[in-house]
């Protein structure tokens, strides 16, 4: 188990052993979730932003304010 402190600017250091175990390096996106009162961190999967941007125009039927509201809590 490793301990880190939350700084005044709401930042915390991730211990080297944890970074190594997750394969994290500077600039990597990290996913946070809470399960059963415990925080879980994971390395975010690589996302093909070029591919996602190419899909953006084809998904325009789901971009209304009503859609945003309907899917807000998913």
What this model shows, in words?
The chain has a two-stranded antiparallel ribbon. 28% of the residues lie in helices and 16% in strands. The mean pLDDT is 86. The chain has helices at residues 16-22, 49-56, 65-70, and strands spanning 30-35, 38-43. The chain is α+β, with helices and mostly antiparallel strands and 74 residues long. The protein is elongated and about 45 Å long. The protein has three helices and two strands. The two termini are 32 Å apart. A hairpin with a 2-residue loop joins β1 (30-35) and β2. GO terms for molecular function: DNA binding. It holds the Pfam family MazE_antitoxin. Keywords: DNA-binding. This is AbrB/MazE/SpoVT family DNA-binding domain-containing protein. It comes from Roseomonas genomospecies 6.
Provide the helix percentage.
25-40%
Average residue pLDDT: 86
- Residue runs with pLDDT of under 50 for 5 or more positions: none
Separation of termini?
Answer: 32 Å
GO molecular function: DNA binding
Organism: Roseomonas genomospecies 6
Pfam families: MazE_antitoxin
Protein name: AbrB/MazE/SpoVT family DNA-binding domain-containing protein
Compose a concise summary of this entry.
The chain is an alpha+beta fold.
């Amino acid at each position: 188990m490793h301990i880190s402190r939350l700084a005044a600017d709401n930042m915390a250091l991730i211990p080297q052993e944890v970074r190594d175990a997750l394969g994290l390096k500077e600039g990597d996106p990290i996913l946070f979730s809470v399960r059963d009162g415990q925080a879980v961190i994971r390395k975010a999967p690589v996302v093909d932003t070029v591919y996602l941007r190419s899909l953006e125009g084809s998904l325009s039927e789901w971009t209304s304010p009503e859609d945003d509201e309907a899917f807000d809590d998913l």
